[in-house]
Design brief:
The structure holds 2 protein chains of 2 kinds. By secondary structure, chain A is an all-beta fold. Chain A contains no helices and 11 strands. Chain B is 0% helix and 51% strand. Chain B has no helices and 11 strands. In chain B, a hairpin with a 6-residue loop joins strand 5 and strand 6. In chain B, 36% of the residues are buried. The chains are: A mainly beta, B mainly beta.
C-alpha cells in the first residue's frame, strides 16, 4: 500500500499569515497517462469533506485562489497564502493511483 | 449542483448486516467512478471500496473483502454498499464520494451489542 505522510499534524496560524502543509507518498503518484493522482481535501469542524485540489495543482470550482498546490513524484505541498477564519479544519492529502486509495493522517489547522 | 445523499445507517449488532444507499444528482452519474469512504469516531479517513462506471470493476480495502459488496444502478443514479458480518471496528460515518466532484454528508453506522 502507498503510505501518505503529512507534516505537520497540527498547525496554528495567525489570520492573514501563510500556511503550508507537506504530503509525502511512499511511491510516485505519476501515472503513465502523465497525470499525478494527488488530491487535497478539507474537513471543517462537524462537517463533511470538500475537494480543494485535484491532480496536485488544479483548484476545484469555487476554491479561493489563496489556495495553491505544488509538487511532483512523491513530494507535495498545499499552501494558503493568507489564512482566513473559514480555513480552519483538518486537511487531508489522498492518492488514487493505486488500490487501496490511501489518505494522509490529516493536518489540523487552527487560528492563533 | 452535485448532491450525494446517503441513507441506511443505524445501530446493528456484531455479525449483522446493513445496506447503505446513496442518491446522486447534479451530474452524469453513469460517467464517474464512485467510492465509499469511512471515518471512525475521532479518526481520519479510510477508503473502503470503489466501482467503475458500468459496475463491472470493483475494488475493496483488505479489511472488508468478502464482507462488503459495492454496487450501483445507473438508471436510478444510485450507489449501494451491502455490509455483512459487521464488526465493532466497522463503526463510523460512511461517505458516498466522487473524488473529482464531491462528498455526501455521511451516514452513521454503529456496530455494538
Amino acid at each position: 500500500d502507498i503510505v501518505m505522510t503529512q507534516t505537520p499534524l497540527s498547525l496554528s496560524v495567525t489570520p492573514g499569515q501563510p500556511a503550508s502543509i507537506s504530503c509525502k507518498s511512499s511511491q510516485s503518484l505519476l501515472h503513465s497517462d502523465g497525470k499525478t493522482y494527488l488530491f487535497w481535501y478539507l474537513q471543517r469542524p462537524g462537517q463533511s469533506v470538500q475537494l480543494l485540489m485535484y491532480e496536485v495543482s488544479n483548484r476545484f470550482s469555487g476554491v479561493p485562489d489563496r489556495f495553491s498546490g505544488s509538487g511532483s513524484g512523491t513530494d507535495f505541498t498545499l499552501k494558503i497564502s493568507r489564512l482566513e477564519a473559514e480555513d480552519v479544519g483538518v486537511y487531508y492529502c489522498m492518492q488514487t493511483i493505486q488500490i487501496p486509495h490511501t489518505f494522509g493522517q490529516g493536518t489540523k489547522l487552527e487560528i492563533k | 449542483e452535485v448532491q450525494l445523499v446517503e441513507s441506511g445507517g443505524g445501530l446493528v449488532q456484531p455479525g449483522g448486516s446493513l445496506r447503505l444507499s446513496c442518491a446522486a444528482s447534479g451530474f452524469i452519474f453513469s460517467s464517474y467512478w464512485m467510492s465509499w469512504v469511512r471515518q471512525a469516531p475521532g479518526k481520519g479517513l479510510e477508503w473502503v471500496a470503489n466501482i467503475n462506471q458500468p459496475g463491472n470493476e470493483k475494488n475493496y480495502v483488505d479489511s472488508v473483502k468478502g464482507r462488503f459488496t459495492i454496487s450501483r444502478d445507473n438508471a436510478k443514479n444510485s450507489l449501494y454498499l451491502q455490509m455483512n458480518s459487521l464488526r465493532a471496528e466497522d463503526t463510523g460515518v460512511y461517505y458516498c464520494v466522487s473524488f473529482r466532484l464531491g462528498w455526501g454528508q455521511g451516514t452513521l453506522v454503529t456496530v455494538s451489542s
